[in-house]
Amino acid sequence: MTVTTGNGRNTSDGRRRLVLVDGYGLAFRAFHALPMSMSTAAGEMTNATFGFASMLLDVLRAHQPDCVLITFDVGKSFRHDQFADYKAHRAPMAEEMRGQMQRIRELIATLNIPIYEADGFEADDVIGTLANQAADQGMLALVVTGDSDLLQLVNENIHAVLPGAQRFGEYRLFDRQAVIDRYGFGPERLAEYKALVGDKSDNIPGVPGIGEKTAKDLIKKYPSIEEIIAHVDEITPTRARNALAENAALAYQCRELATIVTNVPVELEIDRCTVGDFDREKVIDLFRLLEFRSLVNKLPDSDRAPAEAYIAASSQQAEPVTVRDRAGLETLAKEIRSAKAIALDVETDGTSPIISTLVGIAIATSENRAFYIPVMHASEPVADSDQVREIVGPALAAHKNVITHHGKFDLALMQRHGFNGIRISFDTMLAAYLLGETGIGLKDLAFRYLGWEMKPITDLIGTGRAQTTMDNVAIDAATTYAGADVEATLRLLPILKPQLIEREQMSLLEDIELALVPILIEMEMAGIAIDTSVLESIDGDVSRQIAEREREIYDAVGHEFNIASTKQLGEVLFEELKLPTGRKTKTGYSVGQEVLDGLRGAHPAVDAILSHRTLKKLKSTYIDALPLQVNPTTGRIHTNYNQTI
User: Fold this and answer.
1) Nearest partner of 69 among 118, 4, 7, judged by Cα
2) pTM strictly above 0.90
3) Nearest CA to 19 among 30, 32, 31, 5?
4) Do residues 64 and 6 make contact, with C-beta atoms less than 8 angstroms apart?
5) Which end of the chain offers a freer environment for a tag, N or C, measured as fewer CB atoms within 10 Å?
6) 224-258 pLDDT, tens digit each
7) What angle do CA 444, 447, 452 make, to 5 degrees?
8) Residues 146, 163: contact at Cβ < 8 Å?
9) CA-wise closest residue to 254 among 128, 129, 79
10) Residue 417: what are its φ and ψ, rounded to 5°?
């Protein structure tokens, strides 16, 4: 591709970039691609808003433009005057989407991105005009849209970015060659192609009887519709020749309807379109309202200085203290005993409380006072685990107001490491779940209620194959990370607790959910005993039965085939054995349980196939799978109970 990404804001030939966004095109795609169940805790639907913001920010991050603008349609265009049925079949905008368009415009305004509109013209025409003006100024224009109509604008100075066909969030960049690869001809002929075949989305009829193959053949052979009509007597097949001869005027009209005009009375003001010219904290405030924490890291850098109010808020977070020696542990124990409330969190080398190792303990004794006790970090001095249990353990167990976030995990792991008797008085994750929060993770809650943009754990341990564990993270980095977690947890207490009190849900939290935590921990720790030797014995018997059923099936059918292949099984049952078919799918015959149950007794092979399936399911789900779940240390299978689903 001509455009490079990730190497600054200039193209490979030194040109600056302007991104032009088809506003409704992106909004419609987002609305229909993402579930309508997406909403805030307050009930505001956000699928279109979130999808629009995500796609816009993805494009800005991927292509690093200097400038960006957005266009929208306004009312009917000149095409409606020329052709009464133009887009006449389109249903009105769904009310669920209409309600989000104001939010989308608010988002655009907060990002300080200018909107260009023109009465009597469509957004496509505005984009075409502005893209050409940008090209005249020596820029590369990137048109971002969900509509392939705009591909006709593509040339050496204008490229298009369209969402992929398979998954939301995928994009494809179209330069001239990419358009040729897709259609077989250049962008300048797309309007004529649509004039011949029509465009259902815009209700452009095209020439009756002209299909895609014929249209492409004609476009490749003749340089214009005028030339096609001039040589109509040479065209084959006869059906196409007659259609063109009878509908020449319609072909010209359809071409005019499909052609994007580039002389709209709008003027590109490039200084208004600068990427990064926005107040980041206003965007963050809007993202907090909409609960879009996952989009924060996608924001481009802001060229404006942070507001003083934000600097003051950020400075409220105190630097946590690392505690390694006995004196530090004794000082911490005293602070714990005198604190009105403490927040507790653990860092581990895994995600299972049954097998993970304790790496460190984080404790906040006030909203501005946090500590981290490292007990297992590679290549660095850590606190003595026995001293931590001896000195800090009793202080934690004696405290009456211990606040956690997902405390069941913390307590289970600490109990395994000798810290007993700790009781949770409030859990911010359980509280958020009871309050109906859509995001109950600590970082989601801290972003929404505290305005904190907390560092994700992957910033410390990485992702994918390069991912490490917390015990390999430098203690200073772990202290900062863990300290922020407990500080945020403690600060959420006075925010979430009053809401529970107001809704009369404190009894639900204290008497049911928190009372259940130690019971669930005990159940998880106890586990379930499995005698793997018995399973091995059963495995041999079941495997023999499976082999017997396979032989019965082959004998009944008359040959061997892949029983696990739905395609082969369908062909055997319904084409060879001529059994009554069930519903047919895109990939072949349906051979689901319901279909086969309906064929019981119709042929000896059917009952054998059903028995074969039962045995295979028994083997794969239980006999083979259960031994793999056994904890090698305890020899038992340990369950995990989730209170927040």
Assistant:
1) 118
2) no
3) 5
4) yes
5) C
6) 999 999 999 888 888 888 989 999 999 999 999 99
7) 135
8) yes
9) 79
10) -105, 20
Give dist(CA 425, CA 511) in Å, integer.
11
Closest CA to 110 of 274, 275, 286, 276: 286
The pLDDT value recorded for residue 217 is 92
- Among 553, 540, 557, CA closest to 610: 553
Virtual torsion, Cα 112, 118, 122, 125, nearest 10 deg: -90
Strands in 171-174's sheet, in edge-to-edge order, are 115-116, 67-71, 17-22, 140-144, 158-163, 171-174
Helix-helix angle 23-33:95-110, to 10 degrees? 130
Residue 17 phi, psi (nearest 5): -115, 140
Cα–Cα distance list, 605 to 51, 80, 443, 582 (Å): 50, 63, 56, 17
Q: In the structure encoding, which two tokens stand for residue 59, read together?
A: 């494009």
Answer whether 337's CB lies under 8 Å from 365's CB.
no
Over the stretch 173-215, which tens digit does the pLDDT of each residue have? 999 999 999 999 999 999 999 999 999 888 999 999 899 999 9
User: Taking CA 228 as the corner, what is the angle to CA 223 and CA 230, rounded to the nearest 5 degrees?
Assistant: 115
- Which are the contacts of 450, defined by CB distance < 8 A and separation ≥ 6? 488, 491, 492
Q: Which helix (H) or strand (E) holds 342?
A: strand 342-348
CA atoms within 13 A on the CB side of 188: 6
**Cβ atoms of 171 and 58 closer than 8 Å:** yes
In one letter, which amino acid is 269? E
